[in-house]
Amino acid sequence: MVGETILRDQPVTRAMLDALAPGPHALIGCDLEEGDLSGMDLTGWTFERCNLRKCDLSGARIAESHWTSCRGAFANFTGTDLSESAIRGCDFNNGSFRRTVLTATRIVGSKLTGADFTDARAMDLMFEESLLINAKLVGFSFRRQSLKQVDFGQADLRKCDFRQAVLDDCSLRDANVAGARFDGADLRNADLGGIRLGDAGLFRGATISRDQAGQLLGELGLNVR
């Protein structure tokens, strides 16, 4: 891209980024730990192998951005626009994505354990091969989506919409699914461990396997032979 600046393998400060011509630019192997990028226009930027631990990106415009193999535990994406962005192989455990715009965002092969997506706008968001253990995803819609190798173990999935979704090699083990909808969902390849009697009715209309049916009945203390 004409005018693109590439910064490699160095600590990067906000002042350095402010001094650049209008982007997008690329940061490769850079250290932004505890940096302040809040409110910046980073539309279309590329972040590869960067350290973003505790970095503050709140309110930033980072639509159409690309994130590859970044480490960003406790990073703050609150109120950012991440629409049409691609996140691959990143670790944003315990990150804050509160009120983030995630329209048409793709998250693949990433760790989001404990991440907080409260009040995020997530139309056409795609998760694949990612860890969302203990994440907060209240009210998310996964309707008609094909989810592959997504671990929602112990996640807060209250009022989520999984209608007509296909969960392939996914886990809902010990997740909070109160008020969620699974009508028409294909759960045959999902781990439903820890689903309790009070939750079982939520799966009415979903397709499950014989083994899963036995597992759910086992919650009632019944033996299936």
**Termini distance?**
64 Å
Give me the Rg, rounded. 20 Å
The largest pleated sheet is described as: 7 strands, parallel
Helical run tally: 3
What is the tally of beta strands?
10
Shape: elongated
Highlighted features:
single chain, 225 residues, mainly beta, seven-stranded parallel β-sheet, three-stranded parallel β-sheet, 3 helices, elongated
Structural write-up:
This protein is mainly β and 225 residues long. The protein has three helices and ten strands; from the N terminus they run βαβββββββββαα. It has helices spanning 14-18, 197-200, 210-218; strands at 6-8, 26-28, 46-48, 66-68, 86-88, 106-108, 126-128, 146-148, 166-171, 186-191. The strands form two sheets. The protein has a seven-stranded parallel beta sheet with strand order 1-2-3-4-5-6-7, with no helix packed on it. Strand 1 (6-8), helix 1 and strand 2 (26-28) form a beta-alpha-beta unit. The protein is elongated.
Write the layout of secondary structure elements.
Elements: E1 6-8, H1 14-18, E2 26-28, E3 46-48, E4 66-68, E5 86-88, E6 106-108, E7 126-128, E8 146-148, E9 166-171, E10 186-191, H2 197-200, H3 210-218
Parallel strand pairs: 1-2, 2-3, 3-4, 4-5, 5-6, 6-7, 8-9, 9-10
What's a concise summary of this model?
This protein is mostly beta strands and 225 residues long. It contains 3 helices and 10 strands, in the order βαβββββββββαα.
